[in-house]
Amino acid sequence: MKADIIKLDGGKAGSIELDEALFGLEPRADILHRVVRWQRNNAQAGTHKVKTRSETSYSTKKIYRQKGTGGARHGDRNAPIFRGGGIYKGPTPRSHGHELPKKFRKLGLKHALSAKAKAGELVVIDAAEAEGKTSVLAKQVKNLGWKRALIIDGAAVNEGFAKAARNIEGLDILPGIGANVYDILKRDTLVITKAGVEALEARLK
Fold first, then answer.
1. What letter does residue 89 receive in the DSSP assignment?
2. Residue 91 and residue 44: Cα distance in Å, rounded?
3. Residue 110: count of CB within 10 angstroms of its CB
4. What's residue 14's pLDDT?
């Protein structure tokens, strides 16, 4: 499939042939959902923790005699039934991550790229280069109509462009190796440089 290439100033810079195997698939929500879920679960810290009755700071002395009070039998104030006592079966530190085959992760990325192409939210630019001036780049981005955009570059991100983009709200930039399903779907516009297209094609073959 063919796509037009534009410059950051809005001018045309020819066209490019996009691989149908990456950008021409029929997007499947179930595949995208599984990959996003895998990403978000792996990113979850899993550091949640509560104190059990052996870790709370009350005395372990028996609070009243076993019989004759008319109340329930208790040992100490650390029991979960009391305010300030231990929590029964509460969360403990653990990993929320799970395995997902590498082939499936690649497939998910292909479907994410295809979803953006099908929705008309894919833009190919000549290069993502700037001299580090945020005001100049912000004006170009505004003129192009990008409000929430992800830019995918080649093997490395241009240092001047990264510096200029740092303070522009809603604009993210990643090298080709960092492209992932969650970030692609999260943004309204996916912008890929010519070098980024080559990097993705090499990565996903």
1. T
2. 14
3. 20
4. 87
